[in-house]
């Protein structure tokens, strides 16, 4: 992959539609096989906490057939759970079929670029390469503060030092870049996986339309934002408009009521849609978590109701990922690294996937010169303004390039990865907040006083809330900063560069 290239989508078939549109549609009747019994695992929220998750219990089918809207009260031990997107929910009633979710980003460019490198010599690590005294240990004297003004300043010497490091180990760095290319090719979501997920979405929508005619099931999150891995689960937003107001209600109670109805509806159709488990999670954004039997075994679906913020931010991230291939490649690396180092799980009080992507976008907007990513909410303001009318949002379009060519910055993904760790290992999270909406950092003093209960503030580009709001414990923040520092220290010393130094193996989510 090396230097960034602008992705161009190739449409060679009329069967591949270009746009994701949210249009009125109907669904086919679901044929339900008779006979057979399957014990579905069902969970529902109890208690008063908005952020509690309860262990699953075996469901009583008789209760599931009950007409009570309240659903099943399942008791169990609780563990804290925060929504991975960290967004507010919205409610509604009426909906439509999602047509056009048929084209995925073309990753042929990345694969071809990687193959063109040829067979590089594999550089194995040896104990002789490692000299602990050579590690550049970051302490307070190395931490720089962002100066007054609208933009942060990257350590001006970092890319010079990276170039020196690269010149010192040219063959090893070449192999390092090859590892990065292969990591992307091996882990990025393929077209076949996308179509497999779309089959699941279609099956679920057919069932939902039995009780909610015209409901719209929109794909959000990593499946559509261009930064998803092969092992990524699927997030869905069900748009249901209130029959009295014909608007998507933003009331949380409406969302929970709809999810309970869907829970019972899916159970009645469990054989037709190959369901394994159903779990209602009473998080800030309530979701119905669904797992499946063969042939969809291994896929986990999180379904929310009327969280239009999630649709808007997925739309925005989708277009950021199309500007330059270095963003999705860097995002996959960072998500893999975070997972392996214990800082990529919101439930444990660290980063969610959304926050990690925002960190990558911010870095490529303001921490490299010339910038690789523009501020899309500024240069395409009309297209990326927040809207409740999700029917007007489309994906896989070619945006007018009214921003600087990202190829003016010739840094490779390997160089950017090292600089990324350097940037955030020194970042003053206590005093500065990160914003891709402004394409800058801004003082946390501008926020409400209670924002300081969070150890860092990463602004959601539409509602302005903190996507890193689960990071509240000092020990978790320290764990995160230590991981940044250790990753930065894995390079620029006397050892050769290698992804294994930051615990990133070949396959994301598989055995390393």
UniProtKB/TrEMBL annotation:
Residues 55-71, 109-119 have a biased composition (Basic and acidic residues). Its cofactor is Mn(2+); Mg(2+). The keyword Flavoprotein does not apply. Pfam families: MTPAP-like_central, PAP_assoc. Residues 178-322 form the Poly(A) RNA polymerase mitochondrial-like central palm domain. The keyword Magnesium applies. GO terms for biological process: RNA 3'-end processing. Residues 1-130 are annotated as: Disordered. Keywords: Magnesium, Metal-binding, Transferase. SUPFAM superfamilies: Nucleotidyltransferase (SSF81301), PAP/OAS1 substrate-binding domain (SSF81631). Residues 1-10 have a biased composition (Basic residues). InterPro entries: MTPAP-like_central, NT_sf, PAP_assoc. Residues 413-463 form the PAP-associated domain. One of its GO terms (molecular function) is metal ion binding. Residues 24-34, 89-108 have a biased composition (Polar residues). This is (pine wood nematode) hypothetical protein. It comes from Bursaphelenchus xylophilus (Pinewood nematode worm).
């Amino acid at each position: 992959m090396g230097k960034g290239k602008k992705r161009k989508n190739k449409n060679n078939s009329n069967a591949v539609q270009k746009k994701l549109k949210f249009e009125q549609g109907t669904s086919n009747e679901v044929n339900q096989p008779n006979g057979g019994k399957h014990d579905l695992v069902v969970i529902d929220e109890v208690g008063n906490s908005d952020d509690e998750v309860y262990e699953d219990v075996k469901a009583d089918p008789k209760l599931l057939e009950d007409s009570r809207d309240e659903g099943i009260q399942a008791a169990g031990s609780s563990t804290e759970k925060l929504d991975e997107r960290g967004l507010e929910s919205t409610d509604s009633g009426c909906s439509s079929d999602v047509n056009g979710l048929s084209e995925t980003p073309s990753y042929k460019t990345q694969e071809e670029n990687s193959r063109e490198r040829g067979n590089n010599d594999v550089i194995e690590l040896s104990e002789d390469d490692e000299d602990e005294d050579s590690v550049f240990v970051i302490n307070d004297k190395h931490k720089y503060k962002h100066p007054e003004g609208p933009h942060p300043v990257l350590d001006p010497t970092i890319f010079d030092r990276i170039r020196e490091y690269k010149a010192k180990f040219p063959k090893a760095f070449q192999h390092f870049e090859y590892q990065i290319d292969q990591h992307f090719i091996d882990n990025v979501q393929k077209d076949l996986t996308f179509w497999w997920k779309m089959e699941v979405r279609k099956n679920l929508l057919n069932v939902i339309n039995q009780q909610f005619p015209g409901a719209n099931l929109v794909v959000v999150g990593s499946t559509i934002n261009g930064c998803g891995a092969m092992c990524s689960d699927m997030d869905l937003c069900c748009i249901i408009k209130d029959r009295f107001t014909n608007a998507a209600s933003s009331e949380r109670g409406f969302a929970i009521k709809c999810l309970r109805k869907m829970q019972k509806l899916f159970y009645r159709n469990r054989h037709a849609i190959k369901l394994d488990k159903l779990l209602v999670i009473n998080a800030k954004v309530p979701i119905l978590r669904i797992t499946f039997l063969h042939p969809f075994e291994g896929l986990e679906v999180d379904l929310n109701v009327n969280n239009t913020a999630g649709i808007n931010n997925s739309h925005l991230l989708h277009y950021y990922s199309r500007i330059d291939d270095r963003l999705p490649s860097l995002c996959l690396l960072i998500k893999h690294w975070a997972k392996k180092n214990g800082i990529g799980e919101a439930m444990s009080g660290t980063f969610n996937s959304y926050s990690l992507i925002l960190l990558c976008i911010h870095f490529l907007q303001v921490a490299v010169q010339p910038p690789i990513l523009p501020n899309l909410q500024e240069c395409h303001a009309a297209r990326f303004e927040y809207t409740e009318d999700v029917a007007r949002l489309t994906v896989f379009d070619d945006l007018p390039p009214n921003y600087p060519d990202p190829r003016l910055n010739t840094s490779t993904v390997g160089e950017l990865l090292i600089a990324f760790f350097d940037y955030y290992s020194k970042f003053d999270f206590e005093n500065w907040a990160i914003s891709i909406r402004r394409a800058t950092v801004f003082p946390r003093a501008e926020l409400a006083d209670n924002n300081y209960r969070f150890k860092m503030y990463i602004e959601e580009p539409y509602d302005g809330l903190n996507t890193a709001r689960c990071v509240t414990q000092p020990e978790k923040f320290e764990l995160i900063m230590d991981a940044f520092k250790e990753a930065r220290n894995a390079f620029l010393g006397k050892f050769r560069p290698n992804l294994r130094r930051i615990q990133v193996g070949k396959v994301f989510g598989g055995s390393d």
